[in-house]
Design goal:
Layout: H1 2-32, H2 35-38, E1 42-44, H3 51-62, E2 70-72, H4 76-88, E3 95-99, H5 103-106, E4 109-111, E5 123-130, H6 133-136, H7 138-146, H8 151-160, H9 166-176, H10 178-185, E6 194-200, H11 204-219, E7 222-228, H12 231-239, E8 245-246, E9 250-251, H13 256-262, E10 266-283
Parallel strand pairs: 1-2, 6-7, 6-8
Antiparallel strand pairs: 3-10, 4-10, 5-8, 5-9, 5-10
GO molecular function: amine transmembrane transporter activity; carnitine transmembrane transporter activity
Organism: Alkalibacterium kapii
Keywords: Cell membrane, Membrane, Signal, Transport
């Protein structure tokens, strides 16, 4: 009986070793794969209509080493889900990314160098108004003209808004940064319930800024309505006077075409934020630094 038990134990142990060896071979095979093979020569993107999507499609054409690569479009939420999973498992992933975005507050990420300059230089977020806005609402114009903040400010609100509403996150930021807010409203008389249409985009970055601005303007006596629309619609609405003001446009690259089309009918009040960047992003743990380091598909 003891002999049978010993034989059974040895047999089970041998089977476990065999299975373990097979698993090791699979792991070794995965380790032998190139980065491109591990990624299935795919860049993970966001919505098809986004400016960064069009720019990345251009990058696929401009970079010879990206021959055979594809851009997988889905949604910002879908891309973030894949990023969360990759980070949790320390797996490789290349995504379309931009700052400001809370992912840079949440994870250690880096932009890949862009030697071909496809993604352009760092951009600015501009404040723009309809013609006649300054004359019709001088107090609001003054506040919007003074409005200026940092990428990190916006990102902190975006991150906080993952656990609360943007309005709550904006209110907390205003309370913690009252000196900055006071610099926007200093010397500006309060309004008397004047209605104001604030234009924005349905993106987390612009939801953060519109939440802050609308609260500041409301506290200063304005009746604010926030309109979240696509960039093409917002620029047209500004040009037609249907929206009073916005702090959302990214220039000169992301929405530059719309400014070229409608610029003569819009008042550009200048940048409210500098240092925004778009490009391809990877986790810091990946040993790659440039788009040019990605190898072409075989």
């Amino acid at each position: 009986m003891k002999i049978k038990k010993s034989i059974t134990f040895i047999s089970l142990a041998s089977t476990a070793l065999l299975l373990g060896a097979c698993g090791s071979d699979d792991s070794a095979e995965d380790g032998d794969k190139s980065l491109g093979e591990q990624l299935d020569y795919t860049i993970t993107g966001i919505e098809p209509g986004a400016g960064i999507t069009a720019t990345t499609e251009l990058a696929l054409e401009e970079y010879d080493n990206l021959d055979g690569w594809e851009l997988e479009t889905s949604s910002t939420a879908g891309m973030m889900g894949q990023l969360d999973s990759a980070i949790d498992n320390e797996e490789p992933l290349v995504i379309t990314g931009w700052t400001p975005h809370y992912m840079f507050e949440q994870y250690n990420l880096k932009f890949l160098e862009d030697p071909e300059g496809v993604y352009g230089e760092p951009e600015f977020v501009h404040t723009m108004a309809r013609q006649g806005f300054e004359e019709d609402m001088p107090q609001a114009y003054a506040i919007m003209d003074n409005f200026s903040w940092e990428v990190e400010d916006m990102q902190s609100i975006m991150l906080a808004a993952q656990d609360m509403s943007f309005e709550e996150a904006a209110a907390d930021w205003i309370e913690e940064n009252q000196d900055t807010v006071d610099s926007w409203t200093e010397g500006v008389d309060e309004a008397d319930g004047q209605e104001l249409e604030l234009g924005s985009f349905p993106w987390d970055s612009e939801r953060a800024s519109s939440a802050v601005i609308s609260q500041v303007l409301t506290e200063h006596g304005f009746d604010v309505t926030v309109n979240n629309v696509d960039p093409s619609i917002l620029f047209q609405a500004l040009a037609q006077g249907e929206v009073d003001v916005t702090a959302a446009p990214w220039l000169p690259t992301t929405q530059g075409a719309y400014l070229e089309e409608y610029g003569d009918e819009i008042v550009d009040m200048g940048p409210n934020m500098e240092g925004t960047v778009i490009g391809l992003v990877v986790p810091e743990y990946m040993e790659i630094d440039s788009i040019a380091d990605l190898e072409p598909a075989e």
